[in-house]
Amino acid sequence: MADKDLALMAHLMRRAGFGATREELEAYVAKGYEEVVEDLLHPERFPELDDTLFCRYYALGSTMVDATVMWHARWLYRMINTQRPLEEKMALFWHHVFATGWHKSENTPAMVHQMDTFRRNGLSDMRTILLDLSRDPAMLDWLDNNENHKSAANENYGRELLELFSMGVGNYSEQDIKNAARAFTGWTFAQPIPLYPYGYYSTHFEYREGDHDDSEKTFLGHTGRFNGEDIIDIVVQQPATPRFIARHLYNFFVADEPQVPAWQIEPPQDPEAIEAMCQAYTESDGNLRAMLRVLFNSASFKAARFKRVKSPTELIAGTIRLVGTHRFPEPGLHDLATASTAMGQFLHNAPTVEGWHTGKEWIDGGTLTERVNFAVNEMADVSKPGIQDMIQRLRAQGPAVAPETFVDTCLDLMGPLEMGDEARRALSRYAHSGGELRFGTPEEADASAARVGRMLQLIVATQEYQFG
Amino acid sequence: MKINGKDSVLVVLQLSGGNDFMNTIIPYTNGIYHDSRPTVGIPAEQVLPLNDTLGFHPRTGRLKALYDMDKVAIIQGIGYPNSNRSHFRGMDIWHTCEPDRLVTEGWLGKTLYELDPQHENVLTGVSFGRGLPRAMAKAGVPVTSVGNLDNYGMMTSIQQDQERLESLEIFKEMYAPAVGSGAVRDYLSQTGLDVLKGSDVIKKAPQTYRSTVDYPDNPIAKSLRDVARVHFADLGTRVFYTQHAGYDTHANEVPTHPRLVDELSSALYAFMQDLWEHERAEEVAILVFTEFGRRVKDNGSGTDHGSGGGAFLIGERIKGGLYGEYPSLDPSQQEHGEDLVHHVDYRGVYSTLLEQWLGVEARPIVNGHYEQLQPFAA
Predict the structure, then answer these.
(1) B2-152+210-366: what fold?
(2) Do A429 and B154 make contact, defined as CB atoms within 8 angstroms?
(3) Among B219, B159, B337, B206, which Cα is nearest to A381's?
């Protein structure tokens, strides 16, 4: 049976990354929980993923072609292979919060650049993050800030910056929105050469002084000839900002909260956890790394195992890491992206500025079918390295593995996972139906491997497997 | 709404990518058409005229045959104000009836909610293809999305029948509702069991289907045959959704577009034949739509995104003919100086189908009041 430390480490790696193999978990446990948290918080201690191999096999990495499915697949490849799991996880976190999609601009490379930005600044401070966001061409286009002119302000970005990206509704007035929007006039991007027939050219931020409304504005009680930077300076000082971001962190890393629009009426399920993160924010000048350090080391985080419905991205990357494939740019990678889209998450392409609805809203009849079938299919081929490793570990239990040990060991190696009574009974029934696992002769070994494969298929089909 | 004692059924067929309406229903006597389209234009002598000014694309003979039987309503110049040339935004607008806001619920999702308020039948809405179109999405409304009708359901990759049956039994046990496990787990177990129920019911469709109609071998014909199979099995489905992709003909329109409209035309014809053979045509109406029309001028290889497209209503009960007016090709009459102008708001066509065909109040679904057509025979 798994020991306590290993189960906790598996939980940390599911949340702060995309899961880990048994071998990796054992190494992490030897290192110690707090030190692993520090490693996660300091991605610069580990080498960046070398993309050149990927680009040799999939000819898009270096050129900015618009292949939406492959860009999605390439991000999944990064999640599966990175040595900096929290860096990728934070990019995904910010993609959820600052939800942008290429379906408006039809410019996927601009979205890919946005993710590079989140990868670079995702663990920095809130001021840097919001400033980079406000200069991001994909975002400026998505929320029409290129239409926000001195002569005619467009409030879209100003509004969402306050409502969805920093403070949440109820913490500012309509006049504050108008004045924030005015402060961001002139913040736009340079139009690239038109799409056809030349292909894609990347856009870049442009500040047009002539189109900036430099007059006096009052914003959240402050008055001055504010520009966008000043608005962000004021926003990051508001107590509502850490509260809002902390609740997002809690929802993403700890346990499912209701959807954002309900936050006004429903208090957080764990106010103390939010408060502790807010304090870390204040003490560190809005540093995300400080907030996450408090979060990952808190008792409430450690106790919150399997309290979140996995996003399609987490389900796919986690399952692939378990079976040990795609550790090299092998064919079939785009199938992972297609599967994710069918499950309701097309990366780089959030449905609306509200982002993906998470928790139970990931699940409907169609998406559950996709989730189950994807994972079951991934467990079908027992020659995959991750499954072979599990079979070897089962084999090491002795010449004959009793049915209950068979179930326990598989559940352990797949997580460790915790099953409800119904699932546990059903899995036991399957284990007993074939008797002991034996590996004495090659025929016995083959038959046992096939039964392990089927056991894993049943495990990933459970409701429990939908939670991470 | 009942038609001869049977519930009315709507089949929505989405042409994804922006069908080139000007090359589907062609203004073959108009000089501007030929001048604007030196590359993709269809010579006047090749079109299949339907009157003195308009003709069908030469590869859509079967669709014209249906038109000649008065079964096809051509809706000319359909769209919405301030056309958005993005596919995805354009498609969203068609799916949600919200031109200015991004929302997640679709017009058919809301329709299904009205048709089956207790969610008694998981097959009231059936979509063919992977993933759920936003048009069909609404929280709490079960819709069955079928990737492959002959192999639909949970754990379909398990090849051996015996193994799969055994696994499904175990699945059912694992998804049994557990007391006190919380709302999320209850919902998950209900959803899992719903899928089992739906796939159990829907698998009857391929088993009982018999037909002499020979569908052409193309993806939209396959989907329409699936619609026919489920419809004939009487499983209570009121809304079917199908998609035919590839209409984004910026480049190489000359080989691509004729193939697509040929596939579409022959698939629709086979589907109608099948409905007639089974005497099940009366209660079915088909809406064929696309997110936008294409630019008047070609770009030397294809056509870019435009507006003012066309839609079709097809069915036994449809009064065939031309609806709306063909958008003017005169540059002074064009939107942005280069796009066809729409005269029929798509929400009026939805309202027509909702109120005159499905018997559902349109206003809350399409978010307002829009002028309806009168395309149904008394």
Answers:
(1) Alkaline Phosphatase, subunit A (3.40.720)
(2) no
(3) B159
Residues 6+ apart with CB under 8 A from A350: A95, A96, A99, A100, A101, A356
Chain A hits for B143, Cβ within 8 Å: 364-366
Cα separation of A431 and A441, whole Å? 20
Residue in A370, A377, A426 nearest the CB of B174: A426
Report how far residue A436's alpha carbon sits from residue A445's, in angstroms, rounded to the nearest whole number: 12
Tell me the chain A residues in contact with residue B176 when contact means C-beta distances shorter than 8 Å. Answer: 422
Look at residue B24 and tell me whether its pLDDT is greater than 50: yes
Task: Provide the ipTM.
Answer: 0.90
Smallest Cα–Cα separation from B125: which of B8, B243, B237, B287? B237
Write the burial class of residue B31 (CB in 10 Å: 0-12 exposed, 13-18 middle, 19+ buried). Answer: exposed
* pLDDT tens sequence across A368-421: 999 999 999 999 999 999 999 999 999 998 889 999 999 999 999 999 999 999
Cβ–Cβ under 8 Å, residues B372 and B350: no
pLDDT of residue A66: 65
Q: What residue type is assigned to position A381 of the chain? A: D
Contact B86/A104, CB-based, under 8 Å? yes
- Best probe of the B interface among A106, A360, A369, A454, by most B CBs < 10 A, is A369
pTM of the model: 0.82
CATH code 3.40.720 region(s) in chain B: 2-152+210-366
Q: What is the pLDDT of residue A1?
A: 42
> Is the confidence at residue A195, as pLDDT, over 70?
no
